[in-house]
Design brief:
Elements: E1 6-9, H1 18-26, E2 30-33, H2 37-41, E3 46-50, H3 54-63, H4 66-75, E4 80-84, H5 85-88, E5 91-94, E6 100-101, E7 106-112, E8 123-127, E9 130-131, E10 146-150, E11 152-154, E12 164-170, E13 172-180, E14 183-186, H6 194-205, E15 226-235, E16 241-244, H7 266-276, E17 280-285, H8 297-309, E18 314-317, E19 323-324, E20 330-331, H9 333-342, E21 347-350, H10 352-364, H11 372-380, E22 385-389, E23 391-396, E24 407-408, E25 419-426, E26 431-436, H12 437-447, E27 451-454, H13 468-477, E28 482-485, H14 491-500, E29 505-508, H15 510-513, H16 519-528
Parallel strand pairs: 1-2, 1-3, 3-4, 4-14, 5-7, 15-17, 15-29, 17-18, 18-21, 21-22, 22-27, 27-28, 28-29
Antiparallel strand pairs: 5-6, 7-11, 8-10, 9-12, 12-13, 13-14, 15-16, 19-20, 23-25, 24-25, 25-26
Helix pairs in contact: 7-8, 10-12, 12-13, 14-16
The structure holds ligand 1PR.
């Protein structure tokens, strides 16, 4: 019957639930959106992918009468799956901008991870579960990783132990999933956890299906180091959107025609990297600084198509800033970001605009709340906001020669210099700014960035390895995760950056596009070196 293939989705409009929609559709179900409390009570199965801040979500649920309907639905043991905040809201209260009262169905409070013990917050990435009871939906997980992204978590206790079906360790042992009868909730994102995640959703959606268990695969123990494939995207001179790749940010061929280097089609490549085992895929709209992204419809189209069948996190960057178009219509950076999220991005990345924001913040010492970085992280959460840094190495003889933080370099400069600072640039590396990567990283962390994508113009496309001095400097300076980027040429470069720095992820472009090293080879090498990865 028709109701058998319908999932009721509770989307109260606070953010991006496109990924959940895509995964449900991929599994053959239609979606009915909750419009009023009755839709909850009449659902045959309900998915609640909570997004945004706890307090805001509770406000909406209380005002619309949905809080009461949810409690009634769950107390009747109707099929329910809460995701992320959709798990947290079931507890009594949360510390997030609070304490704020929750639905109160499960004893316990939700608190923030403690970053003082060396664990970076947000907890972003693929982590292992310790399954404590028969969860019904986690049967295929075994020792494989699932994707988390959050700063708050609920803790297991004697009072809630009959609910807890799995835990995860990240500094603390926190609740990764709960189950009671037909009621399930998970702190991680099954819709972004690749095949493992899809199998969790499948078991929830088809509870009576006889699906053979296939546990036992994998060796997941803890948070994995991520391997990210990056697609620099721009229109070529014919107007087609292509994946390109620069040498130190110069993306044109060394021929008379100086064409934009073309390494393939964005949607196809992204899908391929997903199949090959990329932990995340990033798109950088590298001419976004001059071409307005909302005018650049192909980019939004690329995201829409990609997100339909790529079930790992997608990040998109380029052109996130306030903009006035030729007709005088003003767009805020928040609108630009929202359009990216609506089209399928899980995270957005800000380059140039974050440099201006950091400069201003360092000059005035005031957080205005008005920068793109602050606005977007306030609405979507800081875990959804990446700052992309494009620094260039500047050698100096003495650290006191400049006002910026310097490092003692591993390889001397051209005139025997022993030190360098890393100058931030804007507009795709075209303009150097009076701020160092170290100063920028610390400032954007305070302004609400949840992660740093750390490029290096000197190393980009050179295949000689990551700039270890730079990655060490930045990953030691902040307590948010840092993605090392630029320069990967062989699998050993990945193990080197993880062994010598505190990077949480390593990103590469050229070696993957030119098919020199498959992602799987990189992962196998890391595994052999004793580094935790998702296989
Ligand atoms: O300033 O907010 O509009 O964002 C622009 C974004 O586009 C920034 O994230 C910036 O890094 C990126 N970008 C701008 N110009 C270029 C260029 O190459 N001409 N690409 C560019 C950045 C660096 C990485 C690259 C790694 C790995 N490219 O994306 O993928 O260096 O490459 P490799 O493994 O081949 O060495 P805004």
């Amino acid at each position: 019957s028709t109701t058998d293939s319908v999932v009721t989705l509770l989307d109260y409009g606070a953010g991006n639930v496109r990924s959940v929609r895509n995964a449900i559709k991929h599994l053959g179900f239609d979606i009915k959106d909750v419009q009023n409390p009755e839709d909850i009570l009449n659902a045959s199965r309900l998915i609640f992918p909570g997004v945004g801040a706890f307090g805001n979500a509770m406000d909406v649920l209380n005002k619309t009468g949905m809080a009461e309907a949810l409690c009634a639905y769950i107390e009747k043991d109707r099929p329910f799956l809460g995701i992320c905040l959709g798990l947290q809201l079931l507890f009594e209260s949360s510390e997030e901008n609070g304490p704020v009262k929750g639905l109160g169905l499960i004893p316990g409070t939700v608190g923030r991870f403690d970053s003082s013990n060396g664990f970076r917050v947000p907890h972003i990435g693929w982590n292992a579960l310790q399954i404590t009871t028969d969860s019904g939906i986690l049967d295929d997980v075994g020792k494989r990783h699932v994707y988390f992204v959050h700063s708050y978590r609920a803790m297991p206790s004697d009072n809630n132990k009959e609910w807890v079906s799995s835990t995860c360790n990240y500094g603390d042992t926190f609740i990764a999933s709960i189950r009671r009868g037909n009621v399930h909730a998970v702190q991680f994102h099954p819709e972004k956890s690749g095949d493992v995640g899809l199998s969790i959703l499948r078991r929830f959606l088809y509870p009576k299906a006889q699906i053979t268990k296939k546990p036992g695969e994998g060796k997941a123990l803890k948070l994995a180091q991520r391997v990210i494939a990056c697609l620099d995207v721009r229109a070529n001179d014919k107007g087609d959107l292509v994946v390109t790749k620069g040498d130190q940010y110069d993306v044109r061929e060394n021929t008379d025609e100086k064409e934009v280097r073309n390494l393939g089609k964005p949607v196809e490549l992204a899908r391929q990297y997903y199949i090959d085992g990329a932990d995340e895929v990033s798109f950088l709209n590298i001419t976004g600084f001059r071409d307005f992204p909302l005018g650049d419809l192909p980019m939004l189209q690329v995201l829409k198509y990609t997100s339909e069948n790529v079930f790992v996190p997608l990040t998109v960057g380029g052109g996130i800033r306030d903009f006035t178009d030729a007709n005088g219509r003003h767009y805020t950076s928040l609108e630009v970001a929202s359009e990216y999220f609506r089209s399928g991005a899980d995270k957005i990345s800000i380059g140039s605009d974050a440099v201006y924001a950091a400069e201003e913040y360092l000059r005035t010492g005031v957080k205005t709340g008005k920068t793109s970085l602050e606005q977007i992280s306030r609405v979507y959460g800081n875990q959804a906001v990446v700052v992309s840094i494009d620094p260039r190495r500047v050698y100096v003889k003495n650290p006191t020669d400049v006002q910026f933080k310097t490092v003692r370099v591993s390889n001397l400069g051209p005139n025997g210099e022993e030190y360098a600072w890393y100058q931030c640039t804007v507009n795709g590396g075209r303009e150097g700014r009076p701020i160092g990567a170290y100063e920028l990283a610390k400032a954007v962390e305070e302004l609400g960035a949840g992660e740093i994508l750390l490029n290096c113009i000197d190393c980009d496309g050179q295949g000689k390895g990551f700039d270890i001095d730079l990655v060490k400097l930045i990953s030691d300076a902040v307590s948010i995760p840092v993605i090392a980027s630029s320069g990967a040429g062989v699998p050993e470069h990945f193990s080197e950056v993880f062994a010598k720095t505190n990077a949480s992820a390593a990103l590469a472009a050229g070696i993957f596009h030119r098919k020199e090293v498959p992602i799987q080879t990189v992962k196998e090498h890391l595994l052999k070196e004793g580094i935790e990865v998702r296989i």
